[in-house]
């Protein structure tokens, strides 16, 4: 069941406070030293990426990271997003809070997942809060709240309580309503952020006006279908491949996250390898992840994990979700207006017939010809327009 009535998931009443990201020079110096001293493995035989991250690629990325990457420039970009912190559930929650250019811009919650961060949304935020800068209308703007999920990035403090997705969702509902004073709001999410949006849409229906998602939070066990459609059969095969070939990281983070955290907290090259392989596999990059996202973008996302030391805590939702009921079900469906965007390089693309058993108010189902898991960075112009169009119909 939802933890929304958990008496510990409350705001302590202290007002939000401004938060500036200011990484000490000693942290950056230590990072460069570790990168230069990396002990590299040999390359397994076969195709370079067949068994995981390509050694030659990662060596080049880490050389750039140590010698040419400019964290201070990226830090300034992050600090332009009106960062705040507030204490909820005894936990210092970080979020960006960017007002829309229209005085009555409705609130919109943007939630990320793993291995992402609130930085994924930096391009989308500008397009949603100031659409007139991109050829749109000021009256279509939103006031955006983009948190770091509890236990992720700047919402992490060493030794803190761990949070699963149900608790994280309930904390974000407290942020939006109790702290920021929004009676009702819209929500968009990708990866675990889609799970958060789904849980808002079944446990916080009084607060959630509608959700827009790029990943369906469906259980990984399919019902037996006597006569599956072609699309249902396709999805069954897709899911079987995913569970067999692509979920090693889920098994490790979902069973022994503490063990994994030692290597990824100590080695920046190890951390980069663990994260960037997913950005390559799950995106529409054609194999060239640097060209698709840009090295600076990839490294800034990785930096947020590195400088905060949050990689171990970020694995907790994988651990927790196998030890409690799935976040939505036919008994606890998502009932608020829902828009879904299917991208061809998303990790799983279920058919609408299955989605509608747990999302009972799907009003928009869009199938894209390109794009992947990291939609806010892969195609922010299109995504902003689709979010604005759907939520505009619900205003």
Report on this structure.
By secondary structure, the chain is an alpha/beta fold. It contains 17 helices and nine strands. It starts with 16 loop residues before the first strand and ends with a helix. 45% of the residues are buried.
How is the biggest beta sheet arranged?
9 strands, mixed
Q: Considering DSSP H and I runs of 4 or more, what fraction of the residues is helical?
A: 40-55%
> How many beta strands in the DSSP annotation?
9
Number of discrete helical segments = 17
Rg on CA atoms, Å: 20 Å
Would you kindly provide a brief summary of this structure?
By secondary structure, the chain is an alpha/beta fold. Helix content is 43%, strand content 12%. It is globular and about 55 Å long.
Give the topology:
Blueprint: E1 17-18, H1 25-36, H2 55-67, H3 71-79, E2 83-88, E3 91-98, E4 107-111, H4 122-129, E5 143-147, H5 165-179, E6 185-189, H6 192-203, E7 208-213, H7 230-245, H8 248-255, H9 257-266, H10 268-281, H11 289-293, H12 295-308, H13 311-314, H14 316-321, E8 338-342, H15 352-355, E9 362-367, H16 375-378, H17 380-394
Parallel strand pairs: 4-5, 4-6, 6-7, 7-8, 8-9
Antiparallel strand pairs: 1-2, 2-3, 3-5
Helix pairs in contact: 1-2, 4-17, 5-6, 9-10, 10-12
């Amino acid at each position: 069941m939802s933890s929304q009535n958990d008496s510990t998931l409350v705001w302590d009443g202290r007002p939000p406070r401004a938060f500036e990201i200011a990484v000490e020079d000693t942290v950056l110096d230590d990072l460069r030293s570790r990168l230069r001293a990396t002990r590299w493995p040999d390359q397994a035989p076969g195709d370079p990426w067949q068994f995981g991250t390509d050694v030659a690629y990662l060596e080049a990325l880490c050389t750039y990271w140590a010698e040419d990457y400019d964290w201070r420039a990226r830090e300034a970009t992050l600090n332009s997003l009106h960062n705040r912190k507030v204490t909820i559930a005894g936990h210092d929650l970080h979020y960006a809070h960017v007002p829309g250019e229209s005085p009555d811009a409705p609130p919109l919650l943007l939630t990320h997942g793993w291995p992402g961060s609130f930085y994924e949304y930096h391009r989308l935020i500008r397009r949603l809060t100031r659409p007139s800068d991109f050829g749109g209308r000021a009256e279509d703007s939103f006031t955006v709240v983009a948190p770091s999920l509890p236990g992720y990035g700047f919402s992490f403090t060493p030794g803190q309580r761990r949070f699963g997705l149900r608790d994280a969702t309930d904390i974000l509902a407290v942020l939006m309503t109790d702290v920021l004073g929004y009676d009702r709001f819209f929500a968009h999410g990708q990866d675990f952020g889609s799970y958060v949006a789904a849980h808002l849409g079944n446990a916080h229906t009084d607060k959630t006006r509608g959700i827009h998602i790029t990943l369906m939070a469906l259980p990984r066990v399919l019902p037996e279908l006597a006569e599956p459609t072609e699309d249902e059969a396709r999805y069954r095969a897709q899911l079987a491949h995913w569970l067999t070939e692509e979920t090693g990281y889920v098994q490790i983070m979902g069973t022994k996250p503490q063990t994994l955290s030692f290597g990824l907290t100590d080695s920046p090259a190890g951390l980069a390898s663990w994260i960037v392989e997913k950005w390559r596999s799950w995106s529409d990059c054609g194999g060239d992840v640097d060209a698709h996202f840009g090295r600076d973008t990839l490294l800034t996302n990785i930096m947020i994990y590195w400088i905060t030391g949050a990689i171990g805590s970020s694995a907790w939702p994988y651990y927790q979700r196998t030890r409690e009921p799935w976040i939505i079900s036919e008994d606890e469906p998502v009932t608020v207006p829902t828009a879904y965007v299917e991208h061809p390089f998303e990790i799983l693309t279920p058919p609408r017939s299955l989605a509608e058993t747990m999302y009972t108010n799907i009003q928009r189902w869009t199938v894209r010809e390109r794009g992947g898991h990291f939609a806010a960075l892969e195609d922010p112009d299109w995504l902003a327009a689709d979010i604005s169009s759907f939520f505009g119909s619900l205003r």
